[in-house]
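Reviewer 2 asked us to include a model.

Predict the structure of this chain.
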Amino acid sequence: MSHRFSRRNWLKGVAGISGAALAARAGLWPSVAQAQTVTERPALLVVFLNGGYNSVFASADSYAGAGTFGVSGSNQKNLGNGLVIDAPTLGTLPQFALDHMATVGVRHGLTSHEAAQEADFSDGRSHYAIQLAAAMGGDGAIKCVQVGNRAVPGPKPTEAGVSMQTITDMKTTVEALGGSTDGSAPKRNIAEKGMAASKFMSAQTLVTSPTMTKVLGEGYQAAVETLQKPVRPFDYAALATAYGMGATATAVNNFNSQIAAAELMITAGANVVVAVDGGWDTHGDRDGSSVRNMMNTRILPPLKTFVNRMMTDPERNVVVAIMGDFARSLPGSDHAAALSVTVMGKYVKVGTTGKMSANVQLPAGTPSVPGLWAYFTKILKVNQPIFGTNPHSGLVLT
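Predicted model (structure tokens):
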């Protein structure tokens, strides 16, 4: 039996599987010790709507008096404790999400896309998502992930050995997890021996290049270790079809596949995943019909699937946050200087610190961006106060 084999293709495959295996290494197959003591694994999915996040979703009652952004008496949903959301959109989320939802206010004072986007994720030196992923610990080899080609804003320096990795195709990750989508892929034991050989042959090159040592050296080792681990049944076809994808489709090229990739990477041990969606700079959307349509047709279908599959798992503490550059101002849906963020999670207490005024403003004492990330640490049960004291303590279930 003969197969076409090219060293270039093999090395290309090695590079892909070494990066992907970093994610797989986290343990879809828990160790005996892990199996004996099961604890909740925390994870955060940030859905970032590039261009803005209209506060009609998270603070619908703010606009009821004047009927702005298309708010009426019949399209609001009161969740209690001051939280009123947009009924035709967020109000259709699964009951678990509605019972564990809050609106968090962020008063950053910025109306420029570039400045607001960077401020949402960074202080200019460190990246909040990477910092949080590092502080969360765990055994995931890739702890911070960007799914898809849209870049997460802000500078991204490594924090305590954690960097933000980009996943644009799930194929190699799935193969490393033992859930093949391609009958031509090598058996895992053959791939493991090939990876070990590649690592040996590349040793001298890795030593002479610090950058390659960091990126590939760790990748080779993670891949070998991953492929040596025993696997338990992993049904990628079921995951893909749950998100409306083809059973063997692995490209991360739309929001459905981004959220499918988010589930895959969180299952494989990632702590923080960011999915960026574009087209939310909705000038002229005076009645909110444009953003409601995008939310219902593009964002919510896969997000509902994610909530049902991930957030109710008793062994996990998965938090979802929906945010954007800033809210949309009145009357023309332009740039507001503040943001209302929707947060859902097991330890989220229903309520709001982000209720906008009728002219899309938050009170002067509303915290800025670090307060949001400090809140994330509390509901994720992270003990390190890396972003300072949580100023939204009334939105935490104990």
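The mean pLDDT is 84. The chain has one domain: 40-169+236-395. We have added this to the supplementary material.
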